[in-house]
Model the fold of this input.
Amino acid sequence: MIDPTLRMFIIAIASYLIGSIPTAVIISKQFFGFDIREQGSGNMGSTNAFRVLGWKWGAFVQVVDILKGLVAVTLIAHLMQDQQLPFTNRTPFADFTVVRILAGSCAVVGHIFSVFVGFKGGKGVNTAAGMLIGIAPIEVGIAFAAFAIAVTLSGYISLGSICAAIMIPGAMAIRYNIFDVNIYGYHTLIWFSICVSLLVIYMHRANIRRLLAGTENRFTNLQIFKTKEPDN
Done:
């Protein structure tokens, strides 16, 4: 029988390590012969992978990064299933839900501060999405719709990611307070989702500056309504 404290430690470390896997860096080095951090925006997230490696490898990177968060909350967290927490659970959640939240959060931190690439990773959007798919799938679906609308209207992936981050706690609040949907543990989950969203937005601070300055990279092939660029 493994001590519950040791189990939690193993879950936290394993989730962090799986979140730390630098998918785009591995793909770029193994199949293209360069480090993606030296190309495009210099980020190892899926947006730069789409830009530098093409849509097929970009999609692969995105799916894997989402799976990192999903695996943490659906597989790694199961090490504590039917086990008592080594601390007092003061949330309205069941003990196992608390474990899943902790595991998912560690995976997101791993993606942002990856031990494999000098603690400089991606922005955590996809891994956070994977974690939230396992915890709040309806809100993630609404956030994905917001992401798709923002990207097709503007062509900015970063703007879509920011809108999606805002929409997750927003959708949860609207469903609970306006449509009277019973969301178990809402008063804890809403604050958790706000914290995750703020972290994602903070990781996009450079993108926000570029958006305000009009210098952000735009994916015009994803944009439905294109605007004419002003003459110099």
